[in-house]
Design goal:
By secondary structure, the chain is of the alpha/beta class. It has one domain (2-227): 3-Layer(aba) Sandwich (Rossmann fold). It is built from 10 helices and 9 strands. It has a 9-stranded mixed beta sheet with strand order 3-2-4-5-1-6-7-8-9. The chain is globular, with a radius of gyration of 18 Å.
Length: 260
């Protein structure tokens, strides 16, 4: 999951992460806007809107049932998982989205979600994510949303929400809400190569902002292995334990992607 305000580099980060998540032929985009599709024109794009729940239900149910291993890049993911959506299963816009996220890993399915409105994301998503990459923000609603899981027992006195306010654009903190070590370090995207790389705390915050803060150990590698795709040991989004329903959706299969 990638969270951060507008203009902080979420789309570039998603583009850089994509090759680490799955082979190109397994990647698809779902989003209400065309931004990610413009950066990755070679991928199928399915335009989704929270107002069209029947379409979303059919799309994800088809993916659960067609036997094809697939990795979804979901931009503006609150269209799927808004906590205040009049959907099902605690805020998911459709039951099939809930099933895909919680049980899809058993079928080799994965999903990465990005949102600039983290406080709108159903908390069940974040609390079960392998990795959450958090960009800069001063939004009090976002910081309040982070407070329930942005705590690291190895450094219990540190206020990581304050770090969110100091991050440079295009720099993200890496968190593992379900891991023993919660805070894993900082990453950024090398714009010249569009590759993901780790960075120190001074680089992430700037020397003046970092001040007396503890530097990230330069010998420690930020572990992004959890983003490498779904497996029986864990998915990129949740900890499902069983397969989703087996009945086929109405019609011949998932709707056709835009731009393909």
């Amino acid at each position: 999951m990638i969270l951060g305000r507008r203009g902080t580099g979420k789309t570039k980060l998603m583009e850089a992460l994509a090759p680490l998540l799955a082979p190109r032929e397994k990647l698809v985009i779902v989003s209400p806007i065309v931004t990610l599709k413009r950066r990755m024109p070679y991928l199928p794009w399915y335009e989704i809107h929270v107002s069209n729940k029947a379409y979303i239900e059919k799309l994800f149910r088809g993916w659960l049932n067609d036997g094809v291993q697939r990795f979804v890049l979901a931009d503006e993911a609150d269209e799927l998982t808004a906590a205040n959506a009049a959907g099902t299963a605690g805020g998911f816009v459709a039951q099939s989205v809930y099933d895909y996220i919680n049980y899809g890993r058993e079928q080799g399915l994965g999903i990465a979600l990005s949102s600039r409105r983290p406080s709108n994301i159903a908390k069940d998503i974040t609390s079960n994510a392998n990795l959450v990459l958090v960009g800069p923000t001063v939004d009090p609603y976002a910081l309040d949303y982070y407070s329930s899981w942005m705590q690291d027992p190895t450094d219990p006195d540190r206020d990581y929400r304050a770090t969110c306010r100091l991050l440079k654009d295009h720099v993200f903190m890496v968190w593992s809400p379900i891991g023993n070590q919660k805070f894993l370090g900082y990453v950024t995207v090398d714009i010249s190569t569009m590759e993901l790389r780790e960075c120190s705390e001074k680089e992430a915050l700037g020397a003046e902002r970092a001040g007396g803060a503890r530097d990230t150990d330069p010998t420690t590698t930020t572990d992004t292995s959890g983003m490498a795709g779904p497996s029986k040991e864990g998915s990129s989004t949740g900890r499902g334990a069983s397969s989703a329903g087996s009945s086929s959706p109405t019609g011949a299969g998932p709707p056709t992607a835009n731009g393909t």
